[in-house]
Amino acid sequence: MLDRAPIAVPRAYLWQGAAGRYLLVALALFLLATSVPPGNPFLFSAVGLLPPQGLRFEGPSLVSSPPTVELLNTAAFREGRFSVDIELTAARDDLRGPARIVAASQDPSLQNWILGQRGSDLVVRHRGREATFPQALRLRRRQRLILVFLGQSVTLFVRGAPPVAANLEGRAAPWRDSCRFGLGNEASGDRPWEGELLSLALFDRPLTRTEVEGLFAPASRSSAAEGPRPYLRLRADSQRGVELVGERDASVDLRIYRWTWSLKVASYAPAWSPHSSRVWLPDLTVNLLLTMPVGFFLTALLRQAGKGSIYCLLAVIATQASLSLAVEILQLFSPLRFCDPRDLVVNVLGAGIGMGVYRRGLGRWLSFNGGR
Length: 372
Description:
alpha+beta, 8 helices, 17 strands, 2 domains, 17-stranded antiparallel sheet, Jelly Rolls, disordered N terminus
């Protein structure tokens, strides 16, 4: 009987090969980076969702837009002829600054307009001019406030109380198109507010007293057709993330940030939501493209020096993690940049992909020591 030649069984390279293992580790890191929702302790988030459309600020945090929000740079906001309908619960009455409840600003000295809290006073600013409403905020009490800006003055409406008007005192400062829109803090992170922001609506015109009374009426909550339609309205849920939504599908994406141990650490909306895809996926792609060459060329140098695969893998991870950590620390000193833990994971992932590309044969094609 003739001996049969052994049957060649294809090797499951994806699972058994070294490059396949690297890709599996990279995939695991990618899933970790894209599956962390807001409020996860890993990201130290201090912003919680309040149904149906609210936010809870329990520590130094910020919900902020990217710079330059065109929807808030219209003539109505520039000239101070708009209205704000806000429902909130203040958690503390010892805040100073004033603490920022709502702000369109760049830092404490560059503001377009803000609603803030100083003690139990409500502080309103527009282009550097200020008006104060003493004892307007009640500690741990749910309140709905409507503020009507009329150029040189602001009128505060509270349910069951007569309206109170106050002049905006001071010299008007220039309007800045590059200001961010933020909730719960200043963009620089040093004016935190604590409490619950239950609803927020912006109108691009001053509301009349009749319209304000209609908004306070209980029927206005159950029927969207009654009363004036807001220009932008806050929407916050676990699927869409946090955004300002207007008519005609106009919207402003907002990111969630957290300051912990005096460090600015950013947390975004869930990666599977449309909101997060619009905000974070471009950054993910850029980070991957920037860090892939690090893993590729570092592996080439180490292989030429005779180092083994495990040594190369550990060296690539340690080097890229150190470089990324240095970059993130430098961003802590910029008021317009934020440290995101996911960047560390994605950058290491990019370097790992670069190493995998080298191991898969591109190094051999480029004559980098045979691509070993």
